[in-house]
Amino acid sequence: MSSPKFATIRYTALRIGLFVACFAVVWVLAYFRIIPLAVGAANTVWMLLLAIVISAPLSFVLLRKQRDAMSEQIVAKVDRQRERLAANASQEDGLL
């Protein structure tokens, strides 16, 4: 999966993996009472939110190359669609 064809899938998988790793770290810290637990059933929500807050800046820094590759892939697809739309519009204009 090193092809630029799978850049979006790779970035998404790495982003989810980073979130899961952050959640695991937060869970271990809460289990050993290093970080405070929330009251009642809110503990899971607290840990999920904390994992999101931690994984977001990490993914911004650590996944820069994958994000750039994904954006190049998306820009190429958008450019192809614009070319198709322009070609179709010129064909329709020629019929009028």
How much helicity do the residues have?
A: over 70%
Total individual domains: 1
Global mean pLDDT: 88
| SSE order, one letter for each helix or strand | HHH
Total strand segments: 0
Termini separation: 47 Å
Q: In terms of per-residue confidence, which ranges show pLDDT below 50 for 5 or more consecutive residues? A: none
Question: Would you write up a description of this structure?
Answer:
The chain has helices at 7-31, 43-62, 64-95. 8% of the residues are buried. The protein is an all-alpha fold and 96 residues long. It has one domain. The longest helix is centred in the last third of the chain and has 32 residues, at 64-95.
Provide a brief overview of the structure.
With 96 residues, this protein is mainly α.
Comma- or semicolon-separated keywords:
single chain, 96 residues, mainly alpha, 3 helices, 80% helix, 0% strand
